[in-house]
Amino acid sequence: MSFQQDKFQPKKLEQKIDRLLANALLILRYFFIALMIVYTAICVIIFAVKLGGLAVNRSDLDFKLVDTLLTDGLFVLIILAIVKSLFLKNSLDYAVTLLETGFVVLIRKMILLQTEPNEWLILLVLGITSAVFFMLIILIHYLRRQWQIENEAKAKAVSPSIMNE
Question: How many angstroms separate the CA atoms of 38 and 105, rounded?
Answer without folding.
Answer: 21
